[in-house]
Predict the structure.
Amino acid sequence: MLDKLKALKKAIEKVVDQAKDAAGLEQVEIEYLGRKGKLTALLKGVADLAEQDRPKVGALANQIKREVQQLLEVKKRALAGGQFSVLGETEREDVTEPGIRPPEGHLHIVTQAIREITQIFSNIGFMRTRYPEVDWDWYAFESLNMPPDHPARDEWETFFVDAPISKKGKMVLTPHTSNGQVRELERHELPVRMISIGRCYRRQSDITHVPMFHQFEGLYVDKQVSISHLRGVLDYFAKEFFGSGRTTRLRPHHFPFTEPSFEIDISCGICGGTGVGKDKQKCRVCKSGWLELGGAGMVHPNVLKAGGVDPKKYSGFAFGWGIERTYMMKEGIQIDDVRTPYKNDLRFLKQF
Ligand code: PHE
């Protein structure tokens, strides 16, 4: 048996050496190592040997099998290499040929807007944060001065999640980024200068609403923060984001979590805030000289308390606006339906 194995190995070495191409080599492989191959047959025969011979013969047989496999591998590579060295002679690469440019994408307009807004606020010391988009009722409503069963949950078109109710109430898809206010205060690092950006969800879909959209939420809490600080920050943002000629105005409004509360308007970039178009008619974009941006106000003492901050020592302001909406008011951007950026139509997206 040992002799047979050694003889077989010699025979294999010879045929492998003579093989001229990959096909020939494969033939050899099948003949010796295939299911019905000669070496395979010998290996099977080991089982029938007398017990005292089996270990020695078995070990050699396996060793030969490994060596043969290696031999085949080396030869295979040699043949393949040979193939390419011939190619190198017959087909030379033309390095002067112009390349093929791969398709090049860019960031989605919403991502671009998020980056720009983050940068503008970071320049005046506001840190970008992120808070959960699926959160407890406590953070989205109750801690924001909206007791259980307050109708605000309907006004915000809230999606409720079918999850077990905890001490912090039901679970909701956050309808605004204001859930970040108390979460940020809970970190107990004062003063707070936060810009929280995230996705929001509301049961709504029409030309000015999408069920998933983005908001950026500003929160500034420190000693002696006043409405003038709010105005200053808003004007700064308006000029940076929309252009130097733009200003903001505050209109009284109501939110449970701010007191006083405002709706923020920005002067229209088309008519320059006059409300009158070039044709001496009402401006077609704003009709009044102003465009509505979103809500703001001075943080309600109950919200500060919910976040563990003493309203006698600290005060603050907050604002929360939709990213898509704000971006659409940028000069030169003409998008008349908020849903368009989410249709994934490259003909549209490529323009930005
Ligand atoms: N969260 C409010 C909304 O989504 C906006 C807001 C934020 C108002 C902060 C006041 C202060 O409508």
Summary: The chain has a mean pLDDT of 91. Residues 176, 178, 255, 258, 294-297, 318-320 surround phenylalanine (CB under 6 Å).
